[in-house]
Amino acid sequence: MTAETSQTLDRGLRVLKLLADTDHGLTVTELSHKLGVNRTVVYRLLATLEQHALVRRDLGGRARVGLGVLGLGRQVHPLVREAAMPALRALAEDIGATAHLTLVDGAEALAVAVVEPTWTDYHVAYRAGFRHPLERGAAGKAILAARRPPQPPGEDTDAPGYTLTHGELEAGACGAAAPLLGVTGVEGSVGVVMLADVVPERVGERVMHAAREVAEALR
């Protein structure tokens, strides 16, 4: 900690990050151990966060992320979209296909940013706000692929780092997408959708490159 930073705020943010990384919540004792502070400090932090609905405690006393974070989360999409636009524009122009950034929203994939190429005679219409199940389409499937645990060395895998689909969301359209990796708190993918029978070979690698660019912009 430096003189310009707040130790209490830092600890409160660390509490939120710890709770966001668990599905079953954490006890005061567990938080005390992870933060390296005594239980009294943890109690005060939780009480303050509860006042702002950022943390809730269940009947068993385990602390979990509260519904108040949803209000903060609504402001995330514009920030993420702004950071992703340069890479999406370059991808759309390079490939000549509609490029998109898709984030997880519950059990659905939500397109939060879309860029159409300027030089093509036709392209797939794909709008920001479009939703579809994670299990359908390249964007959602790329996200699900990133959730799978790494394969043990030597085992075969069908995951080249990107996902290809055909006709799953729109007849005659195919897609390619790669997941965003290494971005804390953001789960999503970058991809393209085009009218074609087969995705050209170079598209997969180009989409992966764009996903890395977006991830770097968000770090």
From TrEMBL:
Q: Where is the HTH iclR-type domain?
A: 6-67
Q: Where is the IclR-ED domain?
A: 68-219
Q: Which residues form the signal peptide?
A: none
**Which is an annotated GO molecular function term of this record?**
DNA-binding transcription factor activity
Q: Which GO terms describe its biological process?
A: negative regulation of DNA-templated transcription
Lineage, uppermost ranks: Bacteria, Bacillati, Actinomycetota, Actinomycetes, Kitasatosporales
Q: What is this protein called?
A: Helix-turn-helix domain-containing protein
Q: Which domain of life is it from?
A: Bacteria
Pfam family example for this protein? HTH_IclR
Q: Which UniProt keywords apply?
A: DNA-binding, Transcription, Transcription regulation
Q: Which InterPro entries match?
A: ArsR-like_HTH (IPR011991), GAF-like_dom_sf (IPR029016), HTH_MetabolicPath_Reg (IPR050707), Tscrpt_reg_IclR_C (IPR014757), Tscrpt_reg_IclR_N (IPR005471), WH-like_DNA-bd_sf (IPR036388), WH_DNA-bd_sf (IPR036390)
